[in-house]
Design a protein that fits this description.
alpha+beta, five-stranded mixed beta sheet, 27 helices, 31 strands, disordered N terminus, disordered C terminus, binds 2-acetamido-2-deoxy-beta-D-glucopyranose
Length: 932
Amino acid sequence: MGCIYILLIGLLLHVTIPVHAWKQYRVRRSIDLSASNPLIPDTKLPSDLVPINYTLRIELNVEQLSFLGDVNISMTCTKRTNQINLHAHNDLQVDEVNLDVVQYTDNGETTAIKIRRVDRVPKKPLLVIYLHDDLAAGGVYEARIQFKGMIWENTEGLFQGKYNQLNGDNIQDHSYFATYFRPHNARRVFPCFDEPAYKVPFTVTIVRPKGFHTLFNTEVESTEIVAGNKEADRFKITPPISTFTLGFVVSDLVVIKYDDEQTNIHPVIRIWARKEFHESLKDASTKIKSIMDYLTNFWNASYPLSKLDVVALPNFASVKPADNWGLIVFKENELQQGYYGITQELVYQWLGSWITPFWWSDAHVNKAFAGFLSASTAIEIDKGLEFEGKWPMTILYSIYYEFSKRYPHSRITAMKQETTCSKTELVLRMLNYTLGEETFRKGLQKFIRHREYKTFVSNDIWEALTKQAHLDNKLCESATVNEIAESWVTKDRIPMVSVLRAYDKRSASVTQRLYLRERPHDVPEQDKMLWWIPLVVVRQDNLNFTNSSATKWMKNIREVTLENLPDSNNFIIVNPEEIGPFPVNYDAHNWNLLANYLLTAEGRAKIPVYTRAKLLHDAWNLAYAGDLSFATAFNMTLFMQYERNHLVWNPVFTLIDHIGRHIDMSAVHKKFEIYVRTLLTPLYEELVQDQLEGEAKWKTNLRSLAKTFLCRAGYKPCIEEAQAVFKNWMDSPEPDLGNPVANQYICPVFKWGTQEEWEFGLQRVINFPESRMQSERTYLLKTLAGCPIQASKINRLLNITVLDNNGNFTDNDISLIFKMLSGGSNGYMALFKFLQQNWDSIKLRFKDQEGLWDNLINSATGLFTTQEGYDMVSQLYVQRQGEFGTAEYIIEKSLKNIKEETKWSDENLPVIEGWLDNFLKQHKLSYEKFIG
Ligand SMILES: *[C@@H]1O[C@H](CO)[C@@H](O)[C@H](O)[C@H]1NC(C)=O
Ligand SMILES: *[C@@H]1O[C@H](CO)[C@@H](O)[C@H](O)[C@H]1NC(C)=O
Ligand SMILES: *[C@@H]1O[C@H](CO)[C@@H](O)[C@H](O)[C@H]1NC(C)=O
Ligand SMILES: *[C@@H]1O[C@H](CO)[C@@H](O)[C@H](O)[C@H]1NC(C)=O
Ligand SMILES: *[C@@H]1O[C@H](CO)[C@@H](O)[C@H](O)[C@H]1NC(C)=O
Ligand SMILES: *[C@@H]1O[C@H](CO)[C@@H](O)[C@H](O)[C@H]1NC(C)=O
């Protein structure tokens, strides 16, 4: 094989751009095991022929919405074979008669190769050319293929789009023709090796009607007139590129002229849009330039092409922009938004086009990288305005919740892709912190330099970071970033860390294990799961959050000891600022030191936002998981009375919701609601006072969240306001014509309001006119069922929908009602009793409707969490033995779940109640003191 490579180098030396395409055909495994990416299934081509370059000509026929093309593909043979396999979509018609294969001889001449036959493989996007004689390894060949295809409406392959524009008093129709090749739609437009690893130069000519112009990856080299009132643009040869980054746009869009335009700058950036939209994009150029500058600086490598065309394509329907190299095509409004979206596409110009993931499995690391880099770039440039600090918290929390389930991603594969990618993004963030920004950046700079115009597998990134980290002494020689990354990326799980301090010895024992939030914690093989975990430690006697390097790494081992810690008057914080994506537990004393410190103004000022949020979030979730006493977790919430930062507040709402549901059955719930009101009222009242036009988004969101949760917890002013608004509707002469009440008021009225108010809502559903938006009816029905706490309202609803067989309600409605009732204890309790009391009539009613029957049993029995609940359900189970039919297994499952939940309740309810009693007592005392 070696000789082929030498031959290739010889052939390619005269090309000015560096071409190392052959080097990519190494067989290497990446540590990313999601290789069989189910979202991008593909037929891989045999590698015995690899492309050297393409010459491609495409002629549009816009009247017939079709195109004609021919392509000459030069290839080198790496292994003796008698067939040439190419990707070609079924939609593409290949002229099998006028198809030639030639061999290049040493003196530059060509000789024809005899073709036996040409086949299209059924159901596969393949074109196979069978030859009479074998092609010889080391030989250079060229396939010359003519083909034709269609221009489609949807954005795969070559598509047409339209827009209209005012010209004087007339509205004029315009068309454009553009391509979208990611991930593998180039094969819809020409036969090719449609895999990201095949990066070779393209020489392209596009023939278009006069009056249009064509944008392509590279600049136009020459234009000539051809028959049929058309013009042919021949473009400069591209650097080695993957087929999915090839693209063009044929349109009459106009380049935007900017006042501050500079000439002679590299690269030339041009923004294209319809004339009427130019004004809306007046910021776009500055924005793009500042991002380009930032990225150029980050990579320490200027943009590799001489130009970048950015297109705002009207009525472009694609979910993602088309990130062709040198030609990015956005939806119009995407160019008006903040920095993040645009940065992501610009990042892909380096990471994706210049260096390219070897295969789609490596694309996930690429995507994670682009995500991380775009977020940090956007935050750096606009000082966090766009994110309001939400990155990385939003993805971090979803990872905490998803990966701590007993069965992560049990439902959706697409979600698995997304969360795996987010996790990798967070691992990159962790490395950036622990290796240090400088080392991280330098490592990446070397990586990209080393792989320019080539492909990479994820290991290449980790190797580059390892080298740099060793060079800079940021990682001990025995450790590699590969090992660190592997321990995080290959598992659909995350760890939790427990810190148990030995105050007398000034040390702490630190252990790691699988983080599970849902119970029971019976995940198999968890004893084998270990991670490389950086222990970044902050201490109260030397509070400093700027040093983010690890005091110690837990190298795939279960337990380590931290030495030289402060005394028992001083807390420590491990993993501040959510540096690594894992929760941390402490002994009760350390938690209480933290809780007390956060109650002081000094404490809240000195502990930064992400760390405050983390301490609270970890404490509650660890308590929820059964790893920490709720009394300690509640202690950690006390400082929220004074907390005003939305990032610390955001997770609290989720927690109130989760815990609220869990204790919903018991008397403790009332006390919990009083506590929630105590926490939220000062926040809410302050936010109402501070309300301003044009305030920051987070403020509006926080106010509305606080209000929703206060209303739920029975905050008086909120209920009265809701009832006042609702009264307008009740007083209206024709209430079925429309609903004047904003959604936020409806639930509080149905929950806390009178039977009459609720009944009024019910009548509106029954009399809901066909002509109105059915989603409004659905919303009403959902709230009628889901909000009330009084059994009488629920019974009434069940009476008329289930027993009376009222024809105004469909099976879907009934199913929805059951689902809503399972959302809270008042609901499922009422449903259970209803079932018990009307067993025979209900059975009769649903005798042919297994689905509804199963839903009913599930909603009525599945959600109890206490021993009383267990007793009730098991009594019904015994009493009606053999009568459950299809739902037999459902009630059995319910009993099993309730047992587990009961364990939780037995352990935690007394603790929660004790803490709340104590708090309420103290609160009342101090309140009375205040009055006195
Ligand atoms: C494409 O490759 C062939 C074979 O190496 C070579 O003869 C030809 O000049 C190349 N074409 C271009 C445009 O580089
Ligand atoms: C392919 O090669 C043939 C023979 O040299 C030539 O006639 C044809 O124009 C070439 N096609 C393209 C797209 O360059
Ligand atoms: C905090 O740590 C950083 C990095 O170790 C150091 O440069 C800085 O001086 C420290 N600040 C204080 C107040 O100790
Ligand atoms: C909660 O905080 C109080 C006051 O600091 C303390 O007395 C109590 O022990 C704490 N509870 C737990 C379980 O840590
Ligand atoms: C529901 O129907 C039962 C029997 O038909 C009746 O006793 C009960 O009062 C009704 N409940 C409501 C709230 O309408
Ligand atoms: C719909 O409800 C109204 C009022 O309760 C009732 O009179 C009518 O019969 C119902 N329609 C059907 C089809 O059951």
